[in-house]
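User: Last request for today: this protein with adenosine-5'-triphosphate, please.
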Amino acid sequence: MIELKNISKTFQTPRGTKSVLSDFSLTVNDGTFLGISGESGAGKSTLLSIITGLQKPSSGKVLIDGTDIFSLSDKELSAFRNENIGFVSQEQSFLENLTVLENVALPALLSHKQNLSKSEIFLRAKKLLSDFGIAELSEQYPNVLSGGENQRVLIARALMNDPKIIAADEATDAVSEKQTKEITSIFKALSSQGKTVIFVSHDKAALENCDEIFMQVSKVRLDF
Ligand SMILES: Nc1ncnc2c1ncn2[C@@H]1O[C@H](COP(=O)(O)OP(=O)(O)OP(=O)(O)O)[C@@H](O)[C@H]1O
Ligand SMILES: [Mg+2]
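Assistant: Here's the final one, the structure of the complex with adenosine-5'-triphosphate:
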């Protein structure tokens, strides 16, 4: 279960203090496929980066299965994130000198969560790529990927450690309608297995499969 308790986030900008999230609380139960929509600049990516432990809120708490994630040390938080959270962010990239397969396998190579041998890790990475219909890209380097391929490889990498929580920021932005359906049905299936999926999207059709949809995170306010 994810519990967001009275989250606020402000940024200092040259024009003053920008309040992006204000006293935002939300509980997301295991097995939920939650969609988040809202205007550009509303704070969706900011919220996702706080839920996934990448960015600290200015105030408030994030509890994941009762663990206050920002009370963990940096080292504990990175291990926690790597094992429990699969994050597909809007600005994510790959290690360019590793192949697609190696990039997908990397989270498992850096973690002992599943106790897999190296060959089992690469088998799992291959299986994920083939689930997304891009097995043939395994030995390519990421710089040749198209937008849609890039998104699917990012999602495959996010699923590598079999995380409890999958957070995806506009993960279907660059893909076709058919691939959007495929990706969201994979998210739906993962949530039916008890995982929590939080999916930010502008695209109403992409949000169709969600159990719940949150339409607006906040309105950004500037205090001079
Ligand atoms: N580090 C930062 N410093 C200052 N302002 C920031 C920072 N990060 C985000 N913001 C501002 O916070 C607001 C919310 O940004 P955010 O990226 O969360 O929006 P979003 O809802 O994801 O938008 P989009 O749909 O365009 O991706 C924006 O006005 C953005 O400019
Ligand atoms: Mg965003």
